[in-house]
Automatic annotation (TrEMBL):
Protein's recorded name: Lipase
UniProt-listed InterPro entries: AB_hydrolase_fold (IPR029058), AB_hydrolase_lipase (IPR006693), Lipase_euk (IPR025483)
Family matches, as Pfam families: Abhydro_lipase
Signal peptide (residue range): 1-22
Protein family membership: Belongs to the AB hydrolase superfamily. Lipase family.
SUPFAM superfamilies hit by this protein: alpha/beta-Hydrolases (SSF53474)
Domain Partial AB-hydrolase lipase: 43-101
GO MF assignments: hydrolase activity, acting on ester bonds
Biological process annotations from GO: lipid catabolic process
Length: 404
């Protein structure tokens, strides 16, 4: 069954609005309309800041063509002595632009490049920096038939392999939020993790059953994703015509956009809300309904496992009634890990992180910031001093340990 665009708007907005209770006025005109993304991420955001940047493509085993960007220092001297490769993996409804949204002194992508790292910017399937599929069109239902499981086992694996092959060096991986889910899932695969030199995870997530974020919990309770799948909405694009209208309705008339963000991420201490308009020129990026459904399954069931199709279909997909779990103890204890997490993070809950840590063989270096919410780790105006300098000290401490 295919619904008309008008019906989709009506359905989604009534579902979402009933989930949003706060009702402050918000009168700013928002930059929700899609910018023309003819130029790539390098040309739009990175080169204008004075950083050399080149576009690369990596094709996944199941036919998606992913865009990757390679960024180096804005200072010519550093550029010639390229440091170790670092691959950045963004969060849900984001893409590689998320690492470059503030000034060169504040944004992790720029900071790493100016510190001499060979910075590689990852973008998963479905985002606007992905160049589609070799045979499927975005209009096909099959184009959107994946979840973070495929981000991990196809996209991230392919991006790591690409960077490893080009640079001939093991790769440092930095993940944020959903980027940590897919990193940890991918690291359970021996073929992938052997190409990784170390990893730094911001707001690390594997288990989600203690998360306290108000809006997502309401949407889980409403069975939003199952409803969407049942009526044939497979792509979640808040910059499509109907998505834009829903966002405008939610942000303009019914709720403050900053409040909306807190109800999803928890209270952020150091996020500059006067920049929301600029952020919305780039975010949110599309994802699939199936992916959101997979995340909602984790919230309901408290498992870190593959997508659950229901008993009989699981049998067909996996040869067993329950989806196979990702076994964190498979991640080699020799892999150096660093994690930054916050006391006000409503998505990456501290109890869930304890669960993750118990299952890992190694003891990661931990940075705990009591007042930090989920977005602060990416967009805090003080993230450099609070978080990134400490992450860089971790990478420095590895010295020649990693083969670069
Ligand atoms: C929003 O706009 C309305 C009418 O234009 C105005 O009365 C109201 O004060 C505005 N609210 C805010 C918070 O600016
Ligand atoms: C960025 O940091 C550098 C070095 O710390 C400093 O010299 C420069 O003035 C800063 N730039 C801005 C715009 O703050
Ligand atoms: C917050 O954002 C505004 C608008 O971009 C900017 O002028 C201001 O300097 C930012 N504040 C901080 C602390 O970065």
């Amino acid at each position: 069954m295919e619904l008309s665009a008008a019906l989709k708007v009506a359905l989604l907005s009534s579902l979402l609005l009933s989930a949003v209770k706060s009702a402050e006025d918000f009168n700013d005109t928002l930059n929700l309309r899609q910018k023309s993304h003819v130029a790539g991420l390098c040309a739009q955001l990175i080169e204008p800041a004075g950083f050399p940047c080149s576009e690369h493509n990596a094709q996944t085993k199941d036919g998606f063509v992913l865009g990757l960007q390679r960024v180096s220092s804005s200072s010519g001297i550093l550029r010639r002595q390229m440091g170790p490769p670092v691959l950045l993996i963004h969060g849900l409804f984001m893409a590689g632009d998320a690492w470059f949204l503030d000034t060169p002194n504040q944004s992790l992508g720029f900071i790493l490049a100016n510190r001499g790292f060979d910075v590689w910017v990852g973008n998963v399937r479905g985002t606007r920096w992905c160049h589609g599929h070799i045979s499927l069109s975005e209009k096909d239902k099959k184009f959107w038939d994946w979840s973070w499981q495929e981000y991990a086992l196809y996209d991230l694996q392919e991006m790591i392999r690409y960077v490893y092959t080009v640079t001939n060096s093991r790769v440092f991986v930095i993940g944020y939020s959903q980027g940590t889910i897919i990193s940890l899932a991918a690291f359970t695969e021996p073929d992938t993790v052997q190409m990784v030199g170390a990893a730094a995870l911001l707001c690390p997530i594997t288990y989600l059953n203690h998360m306290t974020a108000r809006l997502p919990l309401r949407l889980v309770k409403m069975h939003l994703t199952q409803v969407l799948l049942a009526v044939g909405i497979h792509e979640l694009n808040f910059k499509s015509d109907w998505g834009t209208r829903i966002m405008e309705m939610m942000c303009d008339r019914h709720v403050d956009c900053g409040d909306l963000l807190s109800s999803i991420t928890g209270k952020n201490c150091c996020f500059n809300s006067s920049r929301i308009d600029f952020y919305l020129e780039y975010e949110p990026h599309p994802s699939s309904t199936k992916n959101l459904n997979h995340l909602f399954q984790m919230i309901r069931k408290g498992t870190f496992a593959k997508y659950d199709y229901g008993f009989w279909k699981n049998l067909k997909h996996y040869g067993q009634l329950k989806p196979p779990k990702f076994d964190l103890s498979q991640i080699p204890s020799s892999l150096p890990l660093w994690m930054g997490y916050g006391g006000n993070d409503a998505l990456a809950d501290v109890t869930d992180l304890q669960h993750t840590l118990k299952e890992l063989q190694s003891k990661p270096d931990l940075l705990y910031l009591e007042n930090y919410g989920h977005l602060d780790f990416l967009l805090s105006t003080r993230a450099k001093e609070d978080v990134y300098d400490k992450m860089l000290a971790f990478f420095d401490s590895l010295g020649t340990h990693s083969s670069y």
